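User: Hi! I'm working on a homework problem where we have to compare a predicted structure to a textbook description. Could you give me the structure for the chain below?
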Amino acid sequence: MTVTDAETGPTTTTGRPWASEALHRADPQLADLLAAEAERRAETIQLLAGENLTTPAVLAALTGPLIDKYAEGYPGRRHHTGCALADAAELLAIDRARELFAAPHANVQPRSVTSAMLAAYAALLRPGDGVLAMSLEHGGHLSCGSRANFSGRWFAFTGYGVREDDGLIDLDQVRDLARQHRPKAIVAGSISHPRHPDWAAFREIADEVDAYLIVSAAQTTGLIAAGVAPSPVPYADVTVAATHKLLRGPRGGLLLCTAELAERIDRAVFPFSQGGAAMNEVAGKAVALAQASRAEYRAYAQRTVSGARVLAEGLAEAGVHPLTGGTDTHLVTADVSPLGVTGAEAERRCAAAGLLLGKCALPYDPAPAAEASGIRLGTGTVTSQGMGEPELAEIAGLIARVLAGGAVAPAAARVRELALSFAGRA
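Assistant: Happy to help. Predicted structure tokens:
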């Protein structure tokens, strides 16, 4: 398996740390597991909306000498010595994030998007404060009020949703609920809504009730960076972003905010919710942010959207109904119930054929959450591998064939053939 990168050229598996002789000597059992994972990826088609391939340049940064540097604190204000070069790396990442997203302030230390959401809440709220966010049933993240999550235990959430007739965010409901509950913060953003939110409308509503506006943009961070999706940064008090997913960096979070909130955000990350930063991840983020500023990345982001639209159209033709009738992003959320299957069954059947996607609860879903009626797909990984509209059209047909009860073996053989033909590209 060979992965290519515009910055580094071809990189074979023998150049990957997980395939090194040192790892095989030290821990052959784990080395074999990692090799098997690489083989699994090469032979299947990855349509999970939250996954992507990091570039070889990012991987190089992740395994570089900053991997074991303890740099608790912020540049120029560390709690340990020997941090001058770590400071320079973090400042590089911060400057690139600010420039890429036209943000007054950026914090690149959060280890995950959920950690970044925790910091955003901690900076702006106190336990018991009211928050208005998209309900989990309509596409809100766990950090938007789930009782299993810190958010639902510490804050008083009210959920808004989408209209039943067209699946679009019901801004009239958002406004009415904001006037009724007077929340301290409004959260805009979703993990499964395929259309661009109206950021200006959310800002207007937040201003009317004197609420902070937090935007959860994890799914579309890469599209925003490329200018393919409208940016929430000019409207939000705090924007919570992801450095993995479409941005193709290391798994992690990113916080963008106004200058007025900079100190509060930084203190909410460290020392309130995290200790020392993972400096190798910060370095990897710096690389990903630099790559996302280039024309090649913009073209990639545009292809993820055009491919998703073809995927949605192909599923619709087969009787799998895309929410809102299509997509503006790399996401496709679709109702599989017309084919007589649940989302969970669709996930299982597709996985058996090597098509990896996720079940998804739909707004106004009559099915139990564990089964659901929908599936959620993303085109980030397959686009990174070089697949385009023809391949996405074929993939839609393969999914439809499997869900309609067709024989799995022929579909699985074609999936493996198609996957292997693109496994050496990124």
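For your comparison, note the following. Residues 295-317 form the longest helix (23 residues). The chain is about 45% helix and 15% strand. Good luck with the assignment!
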